[in-house]
Specification:
By secondary structure, this protein is mainly α. The chain has a single domain, classed as TerB-like, CATH 1.10.3680.10. The chain is built from nine helices and four strands, in the order ββββααααααααα. The protein has a two-stranded antiparallel sheet with strand order 1-2. α1 crosses α3, α3 runs antiparallel to α4 and α4 packs antiparallel against α7. The longest helix has 17 residues. The radius of gyration is 16 Å and the shape is globular. The relative contact order is 0.13.
Length: 201
C-alpha cells in the first residue's frame, strides 16, 4: 500500500500499535507520527473520500485503491456492520471502532466520530459489506487482512458477549477476505487475551 507523507509518497509497512501524537493533533493538516514509520499527513481529501465511499459512491474505492483512505473506508464499513448486528450500537462498541481508526489508520478521534455516523446511516445497504470486503481483499496484504479480522473480533467482543449473528458475520467476512479459519481463530485469541475475557467456546 502507499501513504501520502510530508515529503511525498512512500511505500511503508502497516503495523499495529501506532498512536497519534497529541501535540500534532493541533496542527492543520493533521500530522501523525509513527503509524507507518513516517510522519504522515491526513488531509481533508482523505476524509472526503472515506465519506464518499461510506455514502455509496462506487468510484471512491477505485480512486483510493492504493491509499490509506480507501482502506479505512472499507474497514469502518465492516466494523460498523458488525457492531449493528445486535441492534444495539452501544458506547463500548463505538469506542472500540474509534480506537481502531485512531490507532491503526491515524485518524483523529474528532474525525472518527463523523465517519462512524455516516457508516451507521448507510448500514442497511446489503451490498456495502461485499463492496468493503472486496476493497480490503484487493488492497490489504495477507498480514493486513488478518489484522482486519482482529479488528472485527475486537468490535464483536466490545460488549463482552459474542452473539451468534456476530459470529456468523465474522466467519462470512473471513471467507470473503480469504483468511483461513486458523488465522481468524488466532486473531480471536489475541483479542480475548487483550480484553481479559475467559471464553473457551
Amino acid at each position: 500500500m502507499t501513504l501520502r507523507v510530508v515529503l511525498g509518497i512512500r511505500r511503508v509497512p502497516w503495523h499495529r500499535g501506532c498512536r497519534s501524537d497529541p501535540a500534532a493533533d493541533k496542527l492543520k493538516p493533521q500530522i501523525y507520527h509513527g503509524c507507518y514509520g513516517v510522519d504522515a499527513v491526513i488531509p481533508n481529501r482523505m476524509l472526503a473520500k472515506i465519506k464518499s465511499f461510506l455514502n455509496g459512491d462506487e468510484a471512491a474505492p477505485e480512486a483510493a485503491a492504493d491509499e490509506t483512505d480507501g482502506m479505512a473506508a472499507a474497514a469502518v464499513a465492516v466494523l460498523v456492520e458488525a457492531a449493528l448486528l445486535d441492534g444495539d450500537f452501544d458506547q463500548r462498541e463505538r469506542d472500540a471502532i474509534v480506537g481502531i481508526l485512531v490507532d491503526r489508520f491515524g485518524i483523529s478521534a474528532d474525525d472518527a466520530g463523523p465517519l462512524i455516523d455516516v457508516s451507521v446511516s448507510q448500514h442497511k445497504d446489503a451490498n456495502r459489506v461485499y463492496a468493503a470486503t472486496r476493497q480490503i481483499r484487493d488492497t490489504f496484504s495477507d498480514a493486513e487482512r488478518i489484522d482486519m479480522m482482529e479488528m472485527l473480533w475486537e468490535v464483536a467482543y466490545a460488549d463482552g458477549i459474542l452473539h451468534d449473528y456476530e459470529a456468523n458475520l465474522v466467519r462470512r467476512v473471513a471467507g470473503l477476505l480469504y483468511v483461513r479459519d486458523r488465522d481468524s481463530g488466532m486473531a480471536r485469541k489475541r483479542v480475548l487475551e487483550r480484553l481479559g475475557l475467559d471464553i473457551t467456546e
